[in-house]
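Private note to self, pasted from the team thread so I don't lose it. Backbone tokens:
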């Protein structure tokens, strides 16, 4: 029997005071995901942390809800902002909720027909990622992007489809503003 738990979220930082799982993604974990390959190779020397995920451990079974906070650092590889890898759910009928806590983010979403849309995520924005949509979060600002995520614990991450075919659009900085362009 899994007993109820509480978690303290610090509204100053957006960070969780308790977590059991921490995932750190560095640039080297994102091979092939940035368009500017020369810049990617160059930055590999310092291999910066792109984002981190802090998660409460719950059983990864139907009925449970994973809840975690993700922190994306500010930065760019060439013109392209730091972002998450992005994924479909393996159980693709499962949705996800994000709550923006800090910073300026874009949530890029793509369905299996490769139709792509995005929503801005600022502190206080709730983003609903419906079933069947791959999702990637992009830090389009100069501060950390911090957001809470909640999703069914049996959803699973399908990274393979994104590693293979990418998203059909990318987010770059142009004249100091974010811009979505076709790949
Ligand atoms: C959010 C959720 C997680 C995800 C994380 C990082 O917290 O969507 O499920 O793991 O972002 O994104 P990704 O797994 O695509 O690298
Ligand atoms: Zn997800």
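Design output:
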């Amino acid at each position: 029997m899994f007993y109820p738990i509480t978690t303290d979220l610090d509204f100053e930082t957006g960070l969780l005071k308790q977590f059991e799982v921490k995932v750190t993604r560095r640039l080297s974990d994102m091979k092939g995901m940035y368009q500017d390959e020369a810049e990617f190779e160059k930055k590999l020397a310092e291999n910066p942390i792109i984002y981190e995920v802090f998660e409460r451990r719950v059983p990864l079974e139907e009925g449970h809800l994973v809840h975690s906070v993700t922190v994306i650092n500010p930065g760019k590889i060439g013109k392209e902002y730091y972002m998450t890898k992005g994924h479909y759910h393996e159980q693709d009928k499962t949705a996800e909720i994000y709550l923006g806590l800090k910073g300026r983010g874009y949530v890029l979403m793509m369905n299996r027909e490769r139709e792509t849309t995005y929503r801005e995520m600022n502190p206080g924005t709730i983003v609903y990622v419906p079933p069947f949509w791959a999702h990637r979060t992009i830090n389009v600002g100069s501060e950390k992007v911090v957001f809470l995520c909640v999703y069914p614990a049996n959803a699973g991450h399908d990274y393979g489809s994104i590693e293979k075919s990418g998203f059909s659009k990318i987010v770059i900085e142009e004249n100091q503003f974010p811009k979505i362009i076709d790949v």
